[in-house]
């Protein structure tokens, strides 16, 4: 019998970049849907007290509420389904943002930087990877964040007797392009990118560093409990670093535009930062911190456990 030719080794698709991209999007969708109401409440809290807004004076005069009163108010005045208003834009955002940030971090880590020895990755290199991956991913996905913020505020506008600005995702997209052109889709992108860089410094870098530290210095294995501890650290650091930039981003994106497509309240992110501190004090930069942290902790936990478990099920190497 003739010798059997050696079979070609099939490519390992589960360890490919596209597999990591797809898995990260699925994990992010799961986390986003579960924790989205907290993001909506956070946005409402950050817009509350925006005394510079003269055009929408009724919004300015709205009573101040805390996190729990805001949540109950949405349920009573708008209905439970409104807690997920704008979730379509959020899920669309993660199709771009989450996949890009994970793939970018992995690429920077494995191809730009090299580990000095097994399972050791210097924190300064991890920080550069996290900041770069977050900034790059958010710049690409910034238009979807703009659409999400505008959709999230529509319920409150209607309650205040103001006419709706947009009726849905597609309508919001068309009106922004018509008013400001395609460049208008990147309104608020600078504070958005700054926030994403800080959040991913907290999330990606902290999770990666904390997980490696736990595995090296404890008897814990690479399991759910290890992922829980690392993601809890990641959520707290991400919320602490990202909240001020998140407040600025939300206010810049939510402001109305003039006929030339320019913001009528703030000239830019620096002007928004200065105005917020001047009018409301520096503490206003941490408006919505509690719901942000409450959201980031379970979001990070849900995302990383989902991500790692899907990779494990597929037989791919874990993060």
TrEMBL record:
InterPro entries registered for this protein in UniProt: MCP_dom_sf (IPR023395), MCP_transmembrane (IPR018108), Mito_Metabolite_Transporter (IPR050391)
Transport as UniProt keyword: yes
GO cellular component labels: mitochondrial inner membrane
Membrane topology category: Multi-pass membrane protein
Major localization listed first in the record, in broad terms: mitochondrion
Subcellular location per the Swiss-Prot or TrEMBL entry: Mitochondrion inner membrane
Gene3D superfamilies recorded: Mitochondrial carrier domain (1.50.40.10)
Domain of life: Eukaryota
Cross-referenced SUPFAM superfamilies: Mitochondrial carrier
Residues passing through the membrane, by range: none
Alphabetically ordered keywords of this record: Membrane, Mitochondrion, Mitochondrion inner membrane, Repeat, Transmembrane, Transmembrane helix, Transport
The keyword Repeat appears for this protein: yes
Residue stretches of each Solcar repeat: 15-111, 121-213, 222-313
Protein family: Belongs to the mitochondrial carrier (TC 2.A.29) family.
Protein name in UniProt: Mitochondrial uncoupling protein 4
Classification lineage: Eukaryota, Metazoa, Ecdysozoa, Arthropoda, Hexapoda
């Amino acid at each position: 019998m003739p010798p059997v030719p050696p079979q070609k080794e099939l490519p390992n698709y589960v360890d490919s970049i596209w597999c990591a991209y797809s898995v990260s999007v699925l994990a992010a969708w799961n986390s986003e849907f579960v924790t989205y109401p907290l993001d909506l409440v956070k946005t409402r809290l950050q817009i509350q007290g925006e005394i510079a807004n003269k055009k929408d004076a009724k919004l300015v005069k709205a009573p101040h509420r805390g996190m729990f009163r805001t949540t109950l108010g949405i349920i009573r005045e708008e209905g439970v389904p409104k807690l997920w208003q704008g979730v379509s834009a959020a899920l669309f955002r993660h199709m771009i943002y989450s996949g890009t940030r994970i793939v970018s971090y992995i690429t920077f880590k494995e191809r730009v930087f090299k580990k000095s020895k097994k399972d050791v990755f210097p924190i300064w290199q991890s920080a550069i990877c996290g900041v770069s991956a977050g900034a790059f991913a958010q710049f690409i996905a910034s238009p979807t964040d703009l659409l999400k913020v505008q959709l999230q505020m529509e319920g409150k506008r209607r309650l205040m007797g103001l006419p709706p600005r947009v009726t849905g995702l597609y309508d919001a997209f068309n009106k922004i392009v018509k008013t400001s052109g395609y460049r208008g889709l990147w309104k608020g992108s600078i504070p958005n990118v700054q926030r994403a860089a800080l959040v991913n410094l907290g999330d990606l870098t902290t999770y990666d560093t904390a997980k490696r530290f736990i595995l090296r210095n404890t008897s814990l294995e690479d399991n759910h409990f290890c992922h829980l501890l690392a993601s809890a650290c990641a959520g707290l650091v991400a919320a602490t670093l990202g909240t001020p930039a998140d407040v600025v981003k939300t206010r810049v994106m939510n402001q109305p535009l003039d006929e030339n497509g320019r913001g009528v309240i703030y000239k830019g992110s620096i002007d928004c930062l200065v105005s917020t501190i001047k009018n409301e004090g520096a503490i206003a930069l941490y408006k919505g911190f509690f719901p942000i942290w409450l959201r980031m902790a379970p979001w990070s936990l849900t995302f990383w456990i989902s991500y790692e478990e899907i990779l494990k099920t597929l037989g791919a190497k874990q993060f």
